[in-house]
Each structure stands twice: as structure tokens, then as C-alpha cells.
Amino acid sequence: xxxxxxxxxxxxxxxxxxxxxxxxxxxxxxxxxxxxxxxxxxxxxxxxxxxxxxxxxxxxxxxxxxxxxxxxxxxxxxxxxxxxxxxxxxxxxxxxxxxxxxxxxxxxxxxxxxxxxxxxxxxxxxxxxxxxxxxxxxxxxxxxxxxxxxxxxxxxxxxxxxxxxxxxxxxxxxxxxxxxxxxxxxxxxxxxxxxxxxxxxxxxxxxxxxxxxxxxxxxxxxxxxxxxxxxxxxxxxxxxxxxx
Length: 244
Ligand SMILES: Cc1ncc(C[n+]2csc(CCOP(=O)(O)OP(=O)(O)O)c2C)c(N)n1
Ligand code: SF4
Ligand SMILES: [Mg+2]
Fold this sequence. Notes:
Layout: H1 22-35, E1 43-46, H2 54-57, E2 61-64, H3 70-80, E3 86-91, H4 92-98, H5 100-109, E4 114-119, H6 149-152, H7 158-161, E5 169-174, H8 178-196, E6 202-207, H9 211-214, H10 218-232, E7 236-239
Parallel strand pairs: 1-2, 1-3, 3-4, 4-6, 5-6
Antiparallel strand pairs: 5-7
Helix pairs in contact: 1-8, 4-5
Magnesium ion binds next to α4.
């Protein structure tokens, strides 16, 4: 991340909670778009969730989609605006619960869009309910005694679901700590580059703290992400990368 803020993002009106990763993700996307000279052409879609707050701070052409329909809205836009880079931005609830069919079929078809999925292991916007990504034992408003993984399933991992699909790029980064944030930016940059080469679905999942709904102060939330979340969600490139 650069010291100087990119022109395409302004956080004076940001509604993100302190310590939330959505703001970092939005800024990284803006930095990459500007550095690649794509900011004027980039079309983004956002979901009905905390990521929709980027409508206030991003200066891109942005369409707000119904909850869970963000990826498929981007796919439709790309079909009619073939020369524009198109990026879908949404959360784990959108991608892996209500929008799971869209997620699977986009991978199956290898649709030519960028997907940036912010995974905070919870439904952030609606008050912290359990998601398919919630960790075993994690307390949420709908699992107050901790998630029973035998009943509700292990945390959903996109690399498992996409293992048989030939998509352009698949990686997972984290939005905490300078080294991880720099690595996440490289992943986003790679997704943009491959997208501009029409290599199909370029998918980056970004682990993010949700201090508000995790009931943790921002620094403790960062520790929870690094110590607990990464046990279930390994960081790295899974398809189309440098096999790090
Ligand atoms: C069709 C429909 N179902 C449910 C909702 C309620 N809803 C809004 S956001 C959301 C979950 C958000 O979680 P996630 O996608 O992980 O995003 P986050 O806020 O955590 O970043 C839900 C269930 C809705 N707006 N529309
Ligand atoms: S509720 Fe969670 S995901 Fe939403 S803005 Fe606050 S910290 Fe971020
Ligand atoms: Mg979420």
C-alpha cells in the first residue's frame, strides 16, 4: 500500500468500523486500477452488504446488485462491455451462501471477470450471523454457543470447490499486517493483468477482520485472523500463480 492515497478512493465519508478490512481492500483495488491506467474504464459491482459502502468512497462506475447476485451482474456487464475491465466485489455470505450457485457456475464457465471476495467468516452487515465460512466453535449471533461443525459443516473453502475447474487465477490473501497487505495487492494486480489478457475468472479471496461482529478490539481481531482463520483458510495462490 502506498503512503499517498489513490485519487479514486476517498474515505472522508467511510462508514466502515475501525479495524475492518473492507477499507483496505477498496484502497488496494483503487491503487491497482490507477497504476495500470484502468481507473476510467473499470466497472465494479458491489453487493447489498458492508462492501456496498464503497459506493460512498470509490470513484468508479459501480452497480449495486441484489445480495448474492454481484458476480452474475458483473458477468452480464462484461458480456455487453467487452472492452471494459469488470470487477465484482462482495462478501463470503454473498458468495458462499445465497450466491453459491453463481459462484459455482462462474467457475464452471470460467467467466471473464475479476472477483474480489472479502471473507470475514460472518454476515457482517446484518449483525454477525453464522456463514458457511464461520470457524468451528466460533460464536456468532446465530451460534451463541459456538458453531457446531458436525451440524453446520466445516468452513467452506473455494479452492476445494474450484479444484476441478480451469479458471484464470485463484488466490487467497489477508488484509492485516504490511507484508500480507502488500502480498494481497500483488494478487489483485495479477487478477487485473490476467483479466486484461482475457484469461477467464480471476478470483481473489481476502481474509478480513470484522471486529464489530467478532466482538474483538481491532488488534485482537487481527490476531484472531492470523492465528485461527488461517488454519482453515490457507493463504497463497492456488491456480494461475507462481506456486508460492
Ligand atoms: C435476498 C436477500 N437476502 C438477505 C438479505 C440480508 N443480507 C444483507 S447483507 C447479508 C449478509 C452479508 O454478509 P457478507 O456477504 O459476508 O458481507 P459482509 O457484510 O460480511 O461483508 C444478508 C444476509 C438481503 N439483503 N437480500
Ligand atoms: S460490521 Fe464488520 S464487515 Fe461491516 S463494516 Fe463493521 S467491521 Fe466491517
Ligand atoms: Mg462476511
